[in-house]
User: What shape does this take?
Amino acid sequence: MPAHNLPTNSGAKPTLAVFKFSSCDGCQLQLLNLEDELLTLVGAVEIAYFLEARRRVLPPPYDIGLVEGSISTPEEERRIRQVRRDCRYLVSIGACATSGGIQALRNWADVDEFIRCVYPSPEYIKSLETATPIAAHVFVDFELRGCPVNAEQLVELLSALLLGRKPNIPTHSVCIECKRRGYPCVLVTKGEPCLGPITQAGCGALCPRCERACYGCFGPMEQPNIRSLANQLKNEQGRTNREVKLALRQFNGYMEPFKQAGDYYERLEQKET
Ligand code: SF4
Ligand code: SF4
Assistant: This one.
């Protein structure tokens, strides 16, 4: 991790804060999993707020704020506004923070019914009707995709912020990574509903490497041709409109243009019935 160019008020090391909203903690753990780079990171920044890693908390303002998780409760709706005020650069990390995550599946359902089914005392649950990304509530300076985020991309992001340059994060598809590594295509050879052609790279084509279809955990690539893939799934694999909709509505189903396409195939499904 390079020395920083980020000017701070006091001339001291830039401060880093890591915040959790509705999430599983997996993206924060990627930060702790850095191992080799973690000590360098600790040397480059002052970790001022990171409850998953340490008890000591320094007061705001913070130079860099990383936010994991979606906004799913009224308390989170209020807290994210304060977090934005407290941070000079605010970056959302992971599928929950950048798209609403798997919990955003409730955005197409009756939340009250879910709460009644899951909790013995539903009156104690304070939940919004939707789970939404951080950028739907406050301005974010950058979004790092993935479920969880890729550790190398996290290092690149922090390096770029410290050096005052744009993070070099690829926006091409998982297929490019898959073909570069020479993995057999599960879409062609096994008839699997692989979302690799429309999903942003970042994982090293992890699932095709294990002979499984990609389910889109890095969200849509830049300008994805969703209709072309959907036609392939329907015409070549005999998938239904419902199956196409469900393939799109997974970890990043609430992120455009997956959301718009999922809604479109839902309308086609409804016309059939
Ligand atoms: S397996 Fe999936 S990611 Fe790999 S080339 Fe085929 S469609 Fe693309
Ligand atoms: S192949 Fe797709 S589902 Fe698997 S880790 Fe990569 S982006 Fe996620």
